[in-house]
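If you are new to this repository, start here. Below is one unmodified record pulled from the training split, so you can see the exact layout before writing a loader.
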Amino acid sequence: MIRKEEICKQCGARCCKGPSPNITIFDVIRILKHLGEGPEKVSTYFEILTHEEYLCKVLPERFNVHISYETIQELKRRLGKYFENILIIKLKKREDNSCIFLKEDDKCSIYVVRPMACRAYPLKITGPDDSCPMVKYGVDLSYERSMLEIYVREIEEHYRLFMSREITTVRQLVEVLSEYWNKVPIL
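And here is the target side for that same chain:
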């Protein structure tokens, strides 16, 4: 049986070299605490964007990924004003589009506090990433399944909070991070 670590090593951390998953405030707090930073440093390590900016500008320009007009219209319909003004959080990328936390040896420098979406990968909210060798080799993904369940709960809580408070500025985000700072353990 091939071990997950061996598969990831063979793959070259491809999943860390493309579009970033959505990051929750809980991920942000765990990562910033691990790095010994405070909430005010959120913009140092994370991109803060609206859904519109990410889907209509960042994905096409940086990753050559184009979301269909119909999908964008459906998201606008579902999210309403939140599509244009509620913030989403992404891991910052280097010029080559790799995650800023990916080391030269293709290992994660924040592995112990990596975001829940990264822990769940190759499982995503939309289903498994069939291009991942772990899926192709039929590796047991029970750990990833449990992480996906946690990620879904955290992302639901994250969006409930962002939408109820209409968090539209980095200043507001820092305030919420400060408020939740002592409520989120590193893990």
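Two things worth knowing about this chain: The chain has one domain: 4-178. The radius of gyration is 17 Å.
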